């Protein structure tokens, strides 16, 4: 089946009908992979050359723990792994920071609290080793054939406790649209200033006054054509990074609301604190499709009866306790289900276009769950990626070996393509004697085998088993010596 923008996308499913599939599904039932159907395209993205655009790469240099220029390509599902303190969360949350600087109403180049997350205490904390050097942030978007890319170089102005744009470059494919460099140091950090500009392929520089908002120039004095191009390209980037749906590692355990749910809410909040608003709004004012999907997923994947009850217009999530044969509030069931609930709502809300952002981010979706359930969470995310096809970029930071193994298994089974998944290893070492790489992109082959793997990541259980066996053998040998 050919999608609305002419791209074939395979989507594995079992119980879906063609009218039920895609991010505009009528009924979502999350079942095991079997058949193969396709995504008919959908909503929420902006046209670029008659097609839809998505974020395809994050670009940065001298940013936080990463000194050298780095390009992180975003697959439909990007998994971020690594040891603690290496910069996984910094990388995972970068789309939020970029989105703050791409908004047309941006108040500053970057918002340190973008998306309800604290990205840094001070601006200098964003810079590698807090040096006086500039740092760069940027992104690439694509419609599958054409690409747009921007890189903004920023400098921390100590005396003004502010960030300012020192340079900017925008290109389409390999062709430059505009390149800007601040002409005077005193203009860095101002909403407008003199820049040395190059337009298109021409190498001649023109000193011209530029107006800036956020990370982007908005107007070029005396050049309406370039100004219009900047407006159009900025809008594409803003739409591609609009309101990333982000869930952090510590999520709300709220099981009920003491007020009527918000109307038309489309954001979960960084802790999933609005998950009940979304569910309650769907039951009160919508078609109940999302509520049914969430309840079905818990029953099929977790063997748990999780239900949304309404006391008049006040929502409450209850979980059936099979031992006592009673329903209890979600907040009273322990951390596992409560932490998982926003993750499930996020994934299924994206499928039915309740959440519209093309970027979905979740940190440690396996948090507080028994390892046996980690694979089911991986399938939840993989199903969402497959259902939404190339229209979504899912970014998942995980410490779970089971999540990685389940995804590799799905590739080996042919139920996900290897190109669907990219693993980013932070602080990567292929061997103990190797110097660490800040970032390593790991690809899977069609059998689910990675082309590289970091030493010491997910090896702990095996290492402990080896040491356990050695300790047991030594103790038995000592016992035999004593008897002798």
Task: Give a written overview of the molecule.
It contains nine helices and 22 strands. The longest helix has 24 residues. 26% of the residues lie in helices and 28% in strands. With 484 residues, it is α+β, with helices and mostly antiparallel strands. Helix 5 crosses helix 6, helix 6 runs parallel beside helix 7 and helix 7 crosses helix 8. Strand 21 and strand 22 form a beta hairpin. The protein has two domains: 205 residues, Rossmann fold, CATH 3.40.50; 171 residues, no CATH class. A nine-stranded antiparallel sheet has the order 6-5-8-9-10-11-12-13-14, covered by helices on one side.
Radius of gyration: 25 Å
β-sheet strand percentage: 25-35%
- Please give the count of helices: 9
Assembly form of the protein: single chain
Count the strands? 22
- Quickly count the domains: 2
User: How are the strands of the largest sheet arranged?
Assistant: 6-5-8-9-10-11-12-13-14
Rounded mean pLDDT is 85
Low-confidence stretches: 1-22, 24-46
The CATH class of the largest domain: Alpha Beta
| Structural class estimated from helices and strands | alpha+beta
Assign a percent range to the helix content: 25-40%
Cα(first) to Cα(last) distance is: 77 Å
Give the CA-based shape: globular
What name does the CATH topology of the largest domain carry? Rossmann fold
Main pleated sheet: 9 strands, antiparallel
Proper CATH architecture of the largest domain: 3-Layer(aba) Sandwich
